[in-house]
């Protein structure tokens, strides 16, 4: 008799709770819900990583498609770029002021790896230290404006102060 009563109770219990509301009506559903939550917790960051990966790959392939076939500046470009800078580093050294060190490298203002052109327009003279810290970051529009403003002070009137050039998407 006791086991029969228990069987009836267990048979009725889930019905009672499922009628009562939205609470999970059985252990299996509770477990199922937990599994769903775990799956969601694992899958969502996974999906986010995959999406970010795809976005990154697309952006990177666009950069690669932009790349200038020529990476190295010609001697002529190097000479003209260095002369335009008066042999001094053109990069920024705090408070928007120009770096005081002598220029040692010809650098792509827009990084070559990001589609920056190997042109005099995209050439900046840089000291070794600024060249290292700049790496392959795309300069912000305000960095570009500040560079052009600084250039007005030292670039010969015959040459342009504008800086930065990117290859079109081919
Ligand atoms: Zn410098």
UniProtKB/TrEMBL annotation:
Residues 1-20 form the signal peptide. Gene3D superfamilies: 1.10.30.50. This is HNH endonuclease signature motif containing protein. It comes from Pseudarthrobacter quantipunctorum. Pfam families: HNH. Residues 135-170 are annotated as: Disordered. InterPro entries: HNH, HNH_nuc. Keywords: Endonuclease, Hydrolase, Membrane, Nuclease, Signal, Transmembrane, Transmembrane helix. Its EC number is 3.1.-.-. GO terms for molecular function: endonuclease activity; hydrolase activity. The chain crosses the membrane at residues 38-59. Residues 69-132 form the HNH nuclease domain.
């Amino acid at each position: 008799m006791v086991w029969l009563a228990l069987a009836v109770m267990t048979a009725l219990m889930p019905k009672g709770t499922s009628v009562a509301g939205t609470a999970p009506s059985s252990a299996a559903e509770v477990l199922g819900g937990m599994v769903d939550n775990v799956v969601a917790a694992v899958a969502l960051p996974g999906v986010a990583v995959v999406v970010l990966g795809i976005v990154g790959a697309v952006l990177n392939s666009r950069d690669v498609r932009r790349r200038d076939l020529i990476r190295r500046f010609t001697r002529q470009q190097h000479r003209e770029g260095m002369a335009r800078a008066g042999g001094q580093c053109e990069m920024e050294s705090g408070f928007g002021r120009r770096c005081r060190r002598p220029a040692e490298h010809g650098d792509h203002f827009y990084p070559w790896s990001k589609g920056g052109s190997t042109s005099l327009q995209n050439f900046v003279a840089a000291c070794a230290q600024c060249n290292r810290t700049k790496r392959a970051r795309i300069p912000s529009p305000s960095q570009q404006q500040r560079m052009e403003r600084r250039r007005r002070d030292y670039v010969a009137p015959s040459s342009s102060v504008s800086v930065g050039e990117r290859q079109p998407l081919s």
